[in-house]
Design brief:
The structure is a homodimer of 170-residue chains. Chain A is an alpha/beta fold. Chain A has one domain: Alpha-Beta Complex (Maf protein), CATH 3.90.950.20. Chain A is 48% helix and 21% strand. Chain A contains six helices and five strands. Chain A has a five-stranded mixed β-sheet, sandwiched between helices. In chain A, helix 1 runs parallel beside helix 6. At the A-B interface, helix 2, strand 2, helix 3 and helix 6 of A face helix 2, strand 2, helix 3 and helix 6 of B.
Chain lengths: 170, 170
């Protein structure tokens, strides 16, 4: 049986000795719940901020009020600031962030229900991805959480590849 | 069918116009995930701190290092400071906190796997409860999260009773 993505992320984090921090908005704690279902996850998972209210994004994660006012809570700019913010707040190596519209309310023509941004911040790297998920509230949370963990795994696997290069050259 | 406890907590929070904040350690985000499964929960759920690492408890929730050193992370004293800390951090009316040993590792003779403390902080009230849950890691998380939400419901129902008294007297 394939291991769940949160277990794979854990194995890679341990191998690379990196510590993770998470800033969740629309996933509401699901990413953290999945990560902490893995025994021993306290070795690499430092913690999370579930910033449901905008005030939590501003005060805890250092998201700029102007960013929220200009681009909105569900935007590339906001998830990048969330990911950087939680990484710094918890002195982590990698910060992951998610902000989206889980529905059933809150959708607009520009940003319909299911619109989701995911951010990743590491030393020398800040990246964001946009997704459009379908389904009910819980399904959207699950898809967003799964995708965020997959992106962490992709990033960590790249780190493994980078580390292994000198060995291949040697 | 009975409504899940997180939906009942939401109905009560809305009726009483109170805002909730959560500090989770061993439940790792599950309480926040359950609360945010309820559509419209952003009206009363402000956010959470998942303080897995002790440094997160100290820096974000203002838990005193001495409290952790003397009583340990899984203790009445720590969950009380966590509940107060998250309530103040997010300017919430009610702060709920959980710290326990989800296992399979981390248990001791004094504090075996399943040992869980739950704290609740509101204006003029700080309370903590001790539980001993059984089962695997996920089962312990689920029991701890369910119990924390039940304690919130109990507290909010008391608030409803208090509010209804003048009407009964009048």
């Amino acid at each position: 049986m394939d291991e769940p993505v949160e277990a794979v992320a854990g194995v890679l984090a341990r191998q690379l000795d990196v510590r993770l921090a998470v800033a969740e908005s629309c996933t509401g704690g699901l990413i953290s719940h999945l990560l902490t279902n893995v025994p021993g996850s306290s070795d690499y998972f430092l913690g999370s901020v579930i910033s449901y209210a905008n005030q939590a994004k501003i005060h805890l994660l250092d998201v700029k009020p102007e960013t929220l006012a200009i681009y909105g809570a569900v935007s590339r700019e906001t998830v990048l600031e969330m990911a950087r913010g939680v990484r710094q707040l918890l002195s982590a190596d990698i910060g992951i962030s998610v902000s989206g519209i889980a529905g059933p309310g809150g959708g607009t023509i520009d940003k319909p229900v299911g619109t989701t941004w995911i951010g990743l911040s590491a030393v020398g790297l800040d990246r964001a991805w946009h997704f459009q998920f379908a389904g009910g509230r819980l399904e959207i949370k699950q898809q967003a959480a799964g995708m965020a963990l997959n992106l962490v795994v992709d990033y960590l696997q790249q780190g493994i590849l980078d580390q292994s290069m000198p060995v291949q050259d040697g």
